[in-house]
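Build the 3D complex.
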Amino acid sequence: MRQEIPLLITAIVGIGFVIQYFIPHWPFGKMSDWFSDWFSIVGACAIILGALNLLKVSIEKTYRRKEDWGYAAVIIASFLLMTIIGIAEGRGFRNPGTSFDWLYNFVYIPLSATMFAILAFFVASASYRAFRARNFEATLLLIAAFFVMIGRVPVGHTLSSFMPIGWQLSDLASWVMTVPQAAGQRAIMIGIGLGIVSTSLRIILGLERAHIGGGK
Amino acid sequence: MEHFALWLSAFLTLGILSFLYKDNPWYKLSEAIFVGISAGFWFVTLFWDNLVGKFWDGWQDEPMLFVGAALGFLMLLRLVPKIGWISRWPLAFIVGATSGLWLMNYLASNIMVQVQATIQPLFSISYASGFDAGWGAIISSLVIVVGTFTGLVYFFFSKEHKGAFGGAARVGIFFIMITFGASFGYTVMSRMSLLIGRMDFLLGDWLGMIG
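Done.
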């Protein structure tokens, strides 16, 4: 029962979505609407489960005074602060002027933007290693990245302003993005598409069972 | 309150930036606040938008939403170790739905549409305008066809990359390297843009050094 029922659910829901793609009428169209609604609700519960699990792990860490338990206590406090305020504010929790909105603008946004911004330094360090023209392939990578970066900043426009229109650095950057880059991207996308189609088929047919705890 | 908000934002921004020196208590504190606030943000957003907005407001008109709510409840049983295995049922639902959706969507968008966009007429001939195409457009279209085809050849590992097949795969690598280079450049630009935004906040909004 622990293996068979999940396999059956996966197969029925997966096949249901495939059928409704070809027959978007009653009853398959309605079934697809139900599945989509259930998907939203279950997906929300999955994220809420993740948040509750984080709370559980942090409480355990704080209670047992494990290493860095103080930071776990900060996680609990910030989670509870955001959650209690958000729930108490009601449906209009995102409206400008609410406490939730204040926390979002002055705590969440600065933290998330800076967290991604520091990646600029690590990317710069990676560029130093990756952008050495050791062979022809690495040189192509270097040239493509150079044109994309220089072509999208004002200094690139200034440097090549004496060139005829269509041959300036910004035009070359656009050409690299829309032609050779698009060609490679398309090959990658088609490859990804084929991989997803085959993996989805394996899951629906019950050949892939990792999500229900392996092949036992 | 406005000043307090600015100082708090600056304190947290500098806390995250301090990681560039090394891992330190200020960074760890800011990171812990980020983790807690993010989890709370998504908890509240999904609670109001999906659980209340989708289920609570809609179950009178659509009783079948109770099945979704029941599956969601079973998902939360993961927190109870003895009966945690029941959460495999909603998980199986999520995996099945995603597989069914992606099977058709990726087949259509990533395969069919991409192939269709690649194989385009090089030029058009009509009585009104005669031969209608620029050489630039023709060359660009040919480059896209060659790049996409050779890129796919490179990803085909069931045949050894030797001879003409190996040559095509090598051309494919060149296109893929251009793609990676361009994507890398694009990522660098977006991260730099975020960094400029934070510097603008620190030096402008907070310290008032730039106007």
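The longest strand of chain B covers residues 124-126.
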